[in-house]
Amino acid sequence: MYRIPSAADVTEVAEHLGITLTADEAAAYQRQLATMLANFDEFLQIRPTVIPPRYPGNRDAGYRPSAEEDPYGAWMWKCSIPGAADGLLTGKTVSYKDHIAVAGLPLTFGAYAMEGHIADYDATVVSRALEQGAEIIGKNVMNGLAGGFGFGGGFGDYGRPKNPHNPDHLTGGSSSGSAAALAAGEVDISYGGDQGGSIRMPASWSGIVGLKPTFGLVSHFGITFGSDQSIDYTGPMARTVADCAIALEAVAGYDGLDPRQTKEVPDHYDATSRLDEGVEGLRVGIMTEGFAHATPDVSESVHAAADVLAGLGAKLSEVSVPEHQTVSLAQKALGAEGALAIRGTGIFGAFARTFYPEDTITAITRLWQHHNDQLDPRGVLTLLAGAYSRRYFSGRLYARAQNVRPFFIGAYDRALADVDVLIMPTTPMQAPKYEPIQDRLEALEFALTRSANSHSSQNTQPFDFTGHPALSIPGEKKNGLPVGVQLVGPRFGDDLLLRVGQAYANAVDYEQIIAVA
């Protein structure tokens, strides 16, 4: 419902837009706005037939699991939605981070204020997984619009996912519940989201496999998290490299519903046919800058993984990419105004000819209109930074951040001209111990400073900006905790990274590496 604004209302909104109106001018605008709003409402009442994209068939409505059923706090929702009888994912169970739409299931984005919202459409990674025979068994807890506990702290509307390797330690975020469920063996494959490392960091800390694909390779339709869409990804997470490979192949390829995809994206992507070809003769570059701030245990484990590859016939060399130390500045500049722009245009953006999920857009817009006090402090800080960036730099900062992308892409591409794959720690540290914070101000300070300055995303965030594929695989444990080994390759070289990861997994006692106590 709407109401016709008064002249005083029009004056107030105009002032918010930086426009000064006289009383007579406000009255003139008010009369025309009354007509326009009536036209808008008339259009909404027409209700033409709009069929949301979704995989056909009835759905199990599911349920919220009890604490006894969910000992690691990994699940928002449990269900059973069977897919096709045959396909790449036949016999595999699949779950989704709770920012991915599954028709008929709740979609909360990690915020209490979204409780009761049910998606009426499927994200492309959902419909394609079902087409390939997957059984969807639920949605996973995430660091969301209201925060989360993947990195600790004191903000979050849902409970803390516990690290199955040691429940006293963190899982990483924001795909925290997906990582916990996988590490515990409760699901075969989970699709997460990655804007600064949110697939790979929980993979690193929780001892699983996580792939951030090449930008555009996997459709992002039906997925959103309120950040700049040019640094936003979805990708598979799994216990094994082989499952990660089939999970990628099942959903990758061009999709007309995702306007971010370009003509470079193939209709289908082969991630499995060369999976077991090994690494004989492959050139692996140990990237010097990737070991900055790494603990001795992490550095030792990653170098040991490189040595395993060398023993299999790969050729190791040291590689330097100095730009790796500054690329995060560009992404931070981009992210601030990008988040503000998403807030202005709507959670799914604007301007593209695609399907816009009306109910979801409305629900999140109402959250932003009426529940801003419930937002994650990091999200609030990003919006404030975006507002000041727009005020002081008049759009130049955002434009510059977008325009320098080819410079940073070129820096890594030059390194990848001399080697086939780069190797470095996924995160420079292992999963920290969880320290509960009860005091709100202390929790706020933690959210705004300590978690932001931990260097945890120093090796993940750059490749969200450049678009290169990046795969985290579990290396040798240290002190009972996982270590993530990150492999980075050329654009659309996702299959090569999986091939290297598979060679490593076949050469070590992989079951012991991923086993939980």
Could you characterize the architecture of this molecule?
- There is one protein chain.
- The protein has 2 domains: 40 residues, no CATH class; 440 residues, Amidase signature (AS) enzymes, CATH 3.90.1300.10.
- Helices cover 37% and strands 12% of the residues.
- Helix 1 packs across helix 2, helix 6 runs antiparallel to helix 15 and helix 8 crosses helix 10.
- Helix 7 links the parallel strand 7 and strand 8.
- The protein is globular, with a radius of gyration of 23 Å.
- It is of the alpha/beta class and 517 residues long.
- The mean pLDDT is 96.
- It has 16 helices and 11 strands.
| Strand percentage | 5-15%
- Overall shape: it is globular
The N- and C-terminal alpha carbons lie at a distance of 56 Å
Secondary-structure class: alpha/beta
What is the name of the CATH topology of the largest domain?
Answer: Amidase signature (AS) enzymes
**Widest beta sheet: strand line-up:** 1-3-2-4-6-5-10-11-9-7-8
Average of pLDDT: 96
Which CATH class of the largest domain? Alpha Beta
In angstroms, what is the radius of gyration?
Answer: 23 Å
| CATH architecture title of the largest domain | Alpha-Beta Complex
Major sheet summary line: 11 strands, mixed
CATH-level-4 superfamily name of the largest domain: Amidase signature (AS) domain
Helix content class: 25-40%
Number of domains: 2
Order of helices and strands: HHEEHEHEHEEHEHEHHHHHEHHEEHH
Number of E-state strands: 11
Task: Figure out the total of helices.
Answer: 16
Low-confidence spans: pLDDT under 50, at least 5 residues?
A: none
